UniProtKB/TrEMBL annotation:
Cross-referenced InterPro entries: DNA_methylase_N6_adenine_CS, MT-A70-like
GO CC terms of this entry: cytosol; nucleus
Protein name: Methyltransferase-like protein 4
Pfam families in the cross-refs: MT-A70 (PF05063)
MF terms in GO: nucleic acid binding; RNA methyltransferase activity; site-specific DNA-methyltransferase (adenine-specific) activity
Gene coding for it: mettl4
Lineage: Eukaryota, Metazoa, Chordata, Craniata, Vertebrata
Domain of life: Eukaryota
One BP term from GO: methylation
Signal peptide annotation: none
Length: 430
């Protein structure tokens, strides 16, 4: 049930189920036994248990004065509730705030009206409810991710020849060799089942047919030298903003450095390039006017990820002057050469606007997978790449300095599963 429902406005997604795809057959040799352990995994549902909006609200406040019409002409209301206002000094808005207000004015009705039918369909099928469908596990993990720090330490290692074809290290029957170099080589799980492996003394789950490179922006040559050209490239850059600086949750990257990313070298002809962007008008303008033209990517669409609670309310008031309940995705195609008429075989034309609605994770910067919604707009059997990834996906290559962060075993519940048939076991051992 990864796509709960779909209409001409967009999709209502179950992000947790999207993560679980591919984890119904897992294998582990981490227990020190001669025989592998077989089990299935699910991402812990507690991380997608946002029941109430993230702000204090006024009682009896109903912004249902903003109404929209269903196709049958009846008025329907979305309960949007406002933050209690404190008296503050009035001040003039700066340029960024003015730009943000102008953008919000343009897309406000798209979010409001487009959400109605999708949220109503989610309620009708029982997906949007306060009650978790599975009981919570014993505790939320407090795993401390040290991957970015390890990437910094790896910079002290000697550089390999960047002109050489980069090797790919693959899992074998017993998982990975403990001496593998995760920082200079692409690591791959070639099997049709997920593997639990021990990396740097921690246990991680690698989905079927997933590949990853753990490095920062200065050491991407193994990815470039792999010889792969990708039909879809998704980026989730660590944008600079005041909140990140204050919280020190992760290191950010100046916009200008994004131009160093070797997107043109990694893109197949007519590659679909998708970038997550914060609601700062400065960042959106940078992508559309500088970054995409620099990469020879033609801007074609802007989609919106709308974040809602389990009851179908926006996580922030739609008209909040601070945080908005949506984020933007900028989509375009890499145009190699001068022929802009080339289209991917069997790919549909990209719509200019769509909504992706989902319950967000409480884990910082964990985005929903785009694989299901982008499938019609790329070629069959595509090669897909995620840059600045923090998790892995089946049949995708992922890169980042925290690329396996959310694959840590502590984020998953597991239950024993029946051992596969002899034929399946033989396939795993090969």
């Amino acid at each position: 049930m990864s796509v709960v429902c779909v209409n001409s406005c967009g999709w209502l997604l179950d992000s947790c189920s999207l993560i679980d795809e591919g984890l119904q057959r897992c294998v582990s040799y981490c227990d020190g036994l001669d025989k592998p352990t077989h089990f299935r995994c699910c991402f812990k549902r507690e991380y997608f248990n946002t029941v109430r909006p993230h702000v204090q609200i006024q009682q009896n406040t109903d912004i249902s004065t903003s109404t929209a019409k269903h196709s049958n002409g009846e008025h329907a209301k979305i309960d949007l509730q406002t933050r209690k206002k404190r008296k503050r000094k009035r001040r003039d808005l700066n340029t960024g705030e003015l730009d943000a207000n102008i953008y919000h004015g343009k897309i406000r009705l798209v979010v409001l009206e487009g959400s109605l039918a999708l949220l109503e369909a989610g309620r009708q099928c029982g997906y949007l409810t306060e009650v978790l469908t599975t009981p919570p596990s014993e505790s939320m993990p407090s795993h401390e991710c040290r991957l970015a720090a390890l990437c910094d330490m790896a910079k002290q290692l000697p550089l390999t020849d960047e002109s050489l074809m980069a090797p790919v290290q693959t899992l074998n029957r017993d998982g990975l060799d403990p001496s593998v170099d995760l920082f200079s080589n692409i690591t791959e799980n070639p099997f049709d089942c997920a593997y639990e492996v021990t990396l740097m003394k921690e246990k991680y789950l690698l989905p079927p047919r997933s590949r990853f490179l753990l490095s920062d922006i200065t050491r991407m040559h193994p990815l470039v030298n792999s010889g792969d050209k990708f039909d879809l490239i998704v980026l989730d850059p660590p944008w600079e903003n005041k909140s990140v600086k204050r919280s020190n949750r992760y290191s950010s990257l100046p916009s200008s450095q994004l131009k160093q990313l070797p997107v043109p070298a990694l893109a197949a002809p007519d590659c679909l390039v998708v970038t997550w962007v914060t609601n700062r008008a400065k960042h959106l303008r940078f992508i559309k006017e500088e970054l995409y033209p620099f990469w020879a990517v033609e801007v074609l669409a802007e989609w919106l990820w709308v974040k809602v609670t389990r009851t179908g309310e926006f996580v922030f008031p739609l008209d909040s002057p601070h945080k908005k309940p949506y984020e933007v995705l900028v989509l375009g195609r890499h145009r190699s050469g001068t022929d802009h008429t080339v289209r991917s075989p069997a790919a549909e034309e990209l719509p200019e606007q769509r909504l992706l609605i989902s319950i967000p994770s409480v884990l910082h910067s964990q985005k929903p997978s785009l694989s299901a919604v982008l499938k019609p707009y790329i070629s069959p059997e595509p090669k897909c790449l995620e840059l600045f990834a923090r998790s892995l996906q089946c049949d995708w290559t992922s890169w980042g300095n925290e690329v396996i962060k959310f694959q840590h075993s502590s984020y998953f519940t597991r239950e024993r599963a029946e051992e596969p048939s002899t034929t399946s076991q033989t396939a795993i051992k090969q």
